[in-house]
Every structure is written in structure tokens, then in C-alpha cells.
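[READ THE FOLD]
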Amino acid sequence: MKLIIGASGFIGRHLHDYFSEKKDAFAGTHYGPPYKNTTYFNIKEQNLNELDVDFSKVSCAIICSAISKPDECKKNEKEAYEINVNGTKKLFEQLWQRKIFPIWFSSEYVFKGERGNYTEQDKPCPNTVYGTHKAIIEEFLLKSEKEFLILRLGKVFSLNPGEGTILTSTFQQLKDNETVKCATDQIFSPIYVQDLVDIIDISITKNLKGLYNVASPEFFSRFQLAGLIKEKLSMKTGKILPCSINDFPFIDNRPLNTRLNVDKIIRDTNFQFTSISDCIEKLSRI
């Protein structure tokens, strides 16, 4: 049985639906609005024994719960630290006590983005509050001498318009004949959320442990991605306005090149990522 902590969030919802369709046994929690049959759980204030779960049947826990918006972490730094660092550490200790294997998501934001193509051997050097929180937990786990799986993610997106991720939101703006400001100087590795869900399932089956970068081998700026959408879908509406990432009024920094090297996860899973071009072509059918 699997436990999804934060099953009402973006990634958590997709995991919830995937395991439901597979009819895999799992339990899910929510902190914000409930999702389907999830149970309320606050990692900062509650303990696992408050959940109505038979932990003797739980083999692994997938931890999705976090404050993951960089500017929110900067704006509410103390609260974000309590959840992203203290609450998460407490959760790991409780899982290990129950002999439950934890799977946790880190982020490309553990790097300040000076060069890109970061591997699992590169030392984190964050320049954001959010990235610092992720780097702290990475270090905590790597020094713990316990079993765990860290999936360090690129920019996760879906093809569900209601979730407002990068492909669907850019497509909709162009379709509505808007002018879309897109940074030319920030490079990132996207990953389709269904690919991520598949990799999580494969990782559990293969009993992967340690740290893995997880993202598409492809990398783009937002300007390049928007241009690809217009080109692949032969869109005549909308305009793309190139700009710098510094033209946006963010509260915290934005790393410039967080491209992740994903040779390790491809080698150990033989996974074939969905190409961004294929994802874009699916947009026209939504």
C-alpha cells in the first residue's frame, strides 16, 4: 500500500488518479482543499498516528506536500521553513520509525543556474528561499544513512487547461490573440506530469534509492517554447514578445539556467520521455 502525503496538490492529484485507475491500494492526504477521498493532514502540526491508516500495510510514502511557489516562500519565509524543512524532517523520522520508504521531490531550484546541465554529483548552490529549503532537505537525507528516494524535478507541466501550467497557459494566451511576454534568458528542463507519474511507479517497482534528476532531456527558454507552440500548431493568433526574466516583478530571484542532466534516470529505468513536440500537438485536441 502507498501513502500520498499531499494528494490534493498538482502532482498529488495526478498520482491519486493514476493509482486509482490501476486499482493500486493507497491512501491520500490533503492540506488545502480536499480531493476525492483524501484525509486532512498538516505535516507541520500533526503526527502520522492521527491518520486512520494501517501503517503495517504501507510500504512507501510519496511526499508531495510543500509550499512550492518561490515568491510565496520568500514572502512567508518563516511559515515556509516550518513546512518545507521542519515539518518535512519530522515526517521523514516518523516514516523511518514505521519502516516506510519515503519518496520526496526536490527541485531544479537547488541550483542558482549559472551554467546548467547539472548532475546528481553537483553541489547545490541555491539563490532562492525555496531552493534553499530543498537543498537543506537533500543534505539531511544524504547524510541520514537511511533509505530514501529523492526525485529532483524540472518544471512540471500538464495538458489540463484548468491547471494553468506553462504549455496550456501559453497556448491559451496565443489562442486568445494576446501578446505573451516570454523570457529569452531563463533555460529550464520541462517534464510532462504523466511522465513523472510513470517514473515514480517504475522507481517503486525497481526499488530505486538515492538521488535522481527527473526531467525531459530537452531544454528551452520560455521564448523558445512559445515559438514552438506557434510553429507546431500553425497559429496565426497572438504575438510573442521577447524579454528578460528580470523584467517580471518577482519577489525572489529566478535561476537563469537550471537544465538538469538526466542520464542517470534514463540509464536506470530505460524510460522514454514524451517529447515536448508531441505534448504540443496534443494541445490542439484539448
